[in-house]
Design a protein that fits this description.
The protein is an alpha/beta fold. Helices cover 24% and strands 21% of the residues. The structure holds zinc ion (ZN).
């Protein structure tokens, strides 16, 4: 049997190879559904959000949600590699969404299937691979919070270099144009923004 690590890496490569811009995540949602099915997990899909709870879910126990997103932003022109070629060089896997948030997502999904059939856990586990995170769209995690069982605690996967972030700084959305080198909060980019930012900038 393949190691869970290898299985997670292969899922991540499939997700990278499949375009999943915010609100267009139907193909990656289908991949995640297939992966959960292969692991014997009974899951639900609400639009492009795929979610499940542990096999021995007990409503008298508190529930921990494992969440991350499978949508990506569009690749910027600064890409020197094919953003959809999920190749491994050294100990790094490259590709659009590998870091934000594919790596976290496949780790959380693997954690979930590891505990899925375990009996007598102190907590329930729920997992949600959600959509429209990058666009803060209406059909992402927010849209299923009323459908999921009541959540007592959540672990949300985002690229934080394994540092625990206990709160979100906030979200500021500006419609503007900018000249300069495109970037992302996850990367070092020392060039100053000269306004006219073309597209919506997230500050997170
Ligand atoms: Zn993210």
């Amino acid at each position: 049997m393949k190691e869970q690590y290898q299985i997670a890496v292969e899922l991540l490569q499939k997700l990278i190879q499949t375009q999943s811009f915010s609100s267009e995540e139907h193909n990656t949602a289908a991949i995640i559904e297939g992966w959960l099915k292969d692991h014997g997990v009974t899951f639900n899909r609400t639009q492009n959000n795929v979610w499940a709870v542990n096999k021995y879910f007990d409503e008298n126990k508190p529930t921990i949600l494992l969440n991350s997103h499978h949508d990506t932003v569009r690749p910027n022109k600064g890409y020197t590699n094919d953003p959809y070629d999920a190749f491994i060089e050294g100990d790094k896997l490259y590709g659009l969404g590998s870091n934000d948030a594919g790596g976290c997502l496949v780790s959380l999904l693997s954690t979930f299937v590891h505990f899925y059939e375990q009996k007598n856990m102190k907590y329930n586990l729920a997992v949600a691979a959600t959509a429209e995170e990058e666009s803060s769209g209406p059909n992402g995690l927010n849209s299923i919070l009323g459908i999921l069982p009541e959540i007592d605690f959540a672990i949300v996967g985002e690229p934080t270099e394994m540092h625990l972030a206990i709160a979100e700084k906030g979200l500021l959305v500006i419609d503007a144009y900018a000249k300069g080198i495109a970037g992302h909060a996850a990367h070092e980019n020392t060039e100053k923004c000269h306004y006219e930012c073309h597209s919506r900038y997230r500050v997170d």
